[in-house]
Amino acid sequence: MSIHVDGVSKVFGTFSAVKNIHLKIPTGDFVALLGPSGSGKTTLLRLIAGLEHPNTGKILFNGVDFTNKTVKDRKVGFVFQHYALFKHMTVFDNIAFGLNVRPRKLRPSKQEIKEKVMELLQLVKLEETANRYPSQLSGGQKQRIALARALAVEPEVLLLDEPFGALDAKVRQELRQWLREIHQKLKITTIFVTHDQEEALEMADTVVVMNQGKIEQIGSPREVYEQPKNAFVYSFLGRVNEFHSQPIVNGSYTNQNNTVAYIRPNEVGLSKSNSEKGIAAKVTHIHTIGAAVRIQLIRLDTNEFFEAEMTAEQYKKLGAVENGEILFADFKNIVYFEGNEGSIVPFDKVSKIKTASGS
Ligand SMILES: Nc1ncnc2c1ncn2[C@@H]1O[C@H](COP(=O)(O)OP(=O)(O)OP(=O)(O)O)[C@@H](O)[C@H]1O
């Protein structure tokens, strides 16, 4: 089922949680709503579900206006962060619930329900848990059962609100893969809310980046990461260093028109010898995270902190580094934006100046 959110706004009291959102989701798409806490992701999801009613705008399913239809009329399945399984029911009965509560005329036979539940248990790879109670499942298993339960009523849209938010890193990773595979099989239009950029970039076909109730950018994971529309998207989608003071880079560009320079830590080159382009900086902290080494430094010219990230191999090449040592940084891929929220400024539009050293 395709979804069209057409100019939708939602106000709580005097607070605008969602502001004039336009979003078209084609059938079968896997969409991540990504943004910081309070950006309106859950509210938008609830508006699509019919759990909230918009103040303005329309919501269309397959081109038909569903704005005034109830949750029941919309063929949506939900999974929330906190597994809302019924504690007093077995896994089997939890999954069967949506079918068992149908009016007699629409209810499948006992045998049909059994087959459906077993088929879903197979899909979520938890056949052996049919007779257990939710308290006898791990967090990851509960979320898989919650998904099976949502799928039992054959929804045409699947809505997931931070479904893996409460799970540990390893289980999250496994479930991301697993949910992707399930989507590949069933191809149900799926929208999931997350504040985790890695999760959004890894799983979704389309990423919708939200901030303060508005959409900042819609695109494939690659598009939003490699061609961010503005400073917010750039800085939300990965670690960044931010420079406000002058000179920004390589001693020859200045910070006029409120330009902010950004660079990702893995695009900072470090060297022990002073090259022509190098910016002198003092090492303040070194730490290893898995296969990566992060070095924190402070620029001697502007006193701004920044971070460089490299592979263990690159670090070895650089040679042993100590706190307090002076290194020379090469900012390889600087991006300029107008202020902290503004759009990208092309490199040739950043004002060029002569520096004190005359370079
Ligand atoms: N029922 C409500 N009444 C009043 N304010 C609300 C209500 N629901 C949400 N809000 C406000 O709307 C804003 C957006 O909330 P929403 O839950 O959509 O954000 P979110 O991006 O999903 O954040 P999080 O990741 O923290 O869940 C927040 O400031 C929140 O306090």
UniProtKB/TrEMBL annotation:
GO molecular function list: ABC-type sulfate transporter activity; ATP binding; ATP hydrolysis activity
Keyword Phosphoprotein included in the entry's annotation: no
Transmembrane segments: none
GO cellular component: ATP-binding cassette (ABC) transporter complex
Residue ranges of domain ABC transporter in the record: 3-237
Domain of life from the UniProt record: Bacteria
SUPFAM superfamilies: P-loop containing nucleoside triphosphate hydrolases
UniProt keyword terms in alphabetical order: ATP-binding, Cell membrane, Membrane, Nucleotide-binding, Sulfate transport, Translocase, Transport
InterPro entries the record matches: AAA+_ATPase (IPR003593), ABC_SmlMolc_Importer (IPR050093), ABC_transporter-like_ATP-bd (IPR003439), ABC_transporter-like_CS (IPR017871), P-loop_NTPase (IPR027417), Sulph_transpt1 (IPR005666), TOBE-like (IPR024765)
A Pfam family this chain is assigned to: ABC_tran
Protein name: Sulfate ABC transporter ATP-binding protein
